[in-house]
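Hello, quick one for you while I still have it in my head. A protein chain has come my way and I'm curious about its shape. I'm sending you its amino acid sequence along with the backbone structure tokens. I'd be grateful if you could look everything over and explain what you see. Here's the protein in full, and shout if anything looks odd to you:
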Amino acid sequence: MIKDNPALITAIRDRFAHVDSCPFQGERIFFENAGGALTLKSVVETSAFYAGIPDNPGRINSAGQGTQDVINKAKDDLAVFMNATSGQFFAGESGTELLFRMIRTACVNAPRGSKVIGSSIEHPATRSAARRWAEIARLNYVNVVHDDETGMVTAADYAALMTPDVTVATILHASPVTGIGMDVAAISKAIRAVAPDCWIIVDGIQHAAHGQLDLDGYNVDGYAISPYKVFSRHGYGIAWISDRLSAAPHDMLIDAPATGWEFGTRDTGSYATVSDVVTYFDWLGGQVSHETDPRKRLEAAGEAIHDYETHLTNAMINGTGNLPGLRDMEHVTILAGEDNPAREGLVSIVVKGMASVDVVETLNQQGIRTHTRKADHYSGNVLNPLGLEDCIRISLCHYNTEAEVAQLLAAVRSLENDG
């Protein structure tokens, strides 16, 4: 739907700031979206406007009431965007900080001696929080080992280690190292089949930009995103928690409302930019479908994004025009398999005979922005089992083009003589 519509691709790209050039570097192709997606122009304008508003939301004056209305609208927009008919949304320092808060609360409310289950594919945002608070709360941590070849962990993998005394579980929706997505609904179902009252917390940070969010369908208790990876800006994260987790004893001010999770004065601008993002997805859904229902338009946008990004990653792997794909380059190895239907807009590679940092720098000199992932505390859980010290992450979004993919392939192909 996007692939065969050049006018729509142009309209999409026109809505993003710095889509084809960097104010520091000049003309460039942006394949570093997993590190932070491009920002909507509307988000830039909205941020500037609310940065100048001195009034606190909720005060008894027109600005205080007006900004509170903006926050309330953003939460309503999030409920439609992420399909949540219950629970609550709130903002925090970052997606990582919010995951720590949710996991901490679940662990300290779990019976001593019970279990926390998580997987080895997870980003340290959940793994670190779960391991730390399991130890403090005297819980036993259970590690579900992912498949190194596919970069996945499945519902069956979780089910094999589930016992009724599992009280907290963490799930990664998509890996920022390999781009491979997990079936959250299936994993959640497998967990609840054995431990129906388990607290389930999901890291949705990498997945969110690729559309198709369905909290009602996941049957979980917590879900976090980082808006700077979903076309908004840095400086805050968004969490959703179920009514059950909302009511659990948690960090709060004395005599504050029992289900309140927000601390301090809210940043109206951050919430307002969330509405800008949802408005954008709604616009895109209207371009690729004839749906009139807001949720249906958002679903259509998510499906169109998924299909187009799959087309782009397939072009990257299999080739486009007369250019061979990454799979056909003898000096290139693709992580998580060449044919992986769970891939979400990201291809990570290693180049024979070249350090990944050198590959990234060479590409950058040609105006192609990618990123090095090292076997450190962020990515070692994925790279170390593969015997890799690093890799090159090539991450895209639906505003990227096949022509940009072709330029990347030509540049990577030329590295064969350099390696």
